[in-house]
Amino acid sequence: MKKFLITSALVAVIGLSMPVFAHEGEDHAAAPGTEETAQVTSTVELSETAINNLGIKTVKATIAPRATTIDVNGIVEFLPERQAIASARAAGRVSEINVKVGEEVAKGQRLLTIQPIFVGSSPVSIPSPLDGYVTKQNVVLGQSVTPEAGLMEIGDSSEVLVRGVMYETPDVTKVQVGQNVSVNSSLIGNEPLEGKVQRMDGAYDRGSRTLNVYALVENPDRKLLANMQVVLSIEVTEPADILTVPVKAILGESGEQFIFVRSGNAFERRSVKLGAKFGAEREVLEGVFPDEEVVTVGNYQLQFAKSAEPKKDASAAETKKEDDGHDHEH
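The line above is the sequence of Efflux transporter periplasmic adaptor subunit; the predicted C-alpha cells follow.
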C-alpha cells in the first residue's frame, strides 16, 4: 500500500511538469514573442486634405538629351568691361548726391556734384561711365575728395562671369573652353541660367591648390547678383537621351535610395538605381518609367504618413448598431 501511494505521487508530479499540447481545432493564445508582425506597406493613400497639408508637388520623369556634368561651387562676378568707378577730376567737397545704391542709371547721368576747392570754381557734375546699377557709394555730403578717390561704383549685370573653383582632381582635365554650363541656385528658382566656359586659369593657386574656371552667363533679369554663391554645372560630354528625375525627389543614402511615385491619391515608395548626375537632375536606371509623377516637395514627410481610414458605410453601421441592441436567446 505504501509503495502504491509513492508511485501515484510520482506520476502526478511528472504529469504536472510535462508540456500540454493543443489538439486540432482548439484555440490558444500565441506565446510571447511569436505574434505575427505587421507588414510594412510600400504604398500610402492620403485624403485630399492631407495632400494639401503636406504641400505635395510632383513633376514627370522625362526622357531628354542630357550631358554628363561636373558640379563646382561658383561666385558671381561682374565682367571687367561692365564695371566702372566714378571719380572726381579735381579736388573738392561733395555738395550733392543725386542717386542711391541699387538705383539704375544711364551712361552720362549725373551721380553726384563736387564743389572744387578753388575759389570761384563752378560745381562739377560726376557722370555715370556706363549703363548699369549703383553697386557702391564711398562718400557722404561734405566729404573732401581727391582725383584718385573712387566715389561710386557702377555695374552692369545683364551678362556676368561665374567663377567656378575646382580642386586638383582628374575632373580638371575634362573641362575645356566653349563647353556649355548651367547655373543653379535656390535663389533663382527652378530654371537654371545658361552660358559657356570662357576661360581657365593657367596655373593652380599656390596656397589653396585650386583652379578657377570662368563662365560667361546671360543674366537679363538680374537674377544673379555680384558675389552670390551658386552651383556651376559644366557639361563634359555630348548630350544623349536619358531618363531623369529631379535630385530633390531622391531620398535615402547611397545603395538604399528611393522615391515616391504618385498615382491619384496613392503614393508608392520605390527603390531606384541611379546613374549620372546632370545639374539638378539625376539619371534613373531602374525603378521609374517615363511620364510617371515623382514627388519633389513633401516626399520626406511621406515616409511617416499613414493611409487614410476608409469611410464606413452609414447604413451598415446603423444595422450593426440595431443588431447589437437586441437580446437573443441561444
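Note on the example: DSSP finds four helices and 24 strands in the chain. The chain has a mean pLDDT of 84.
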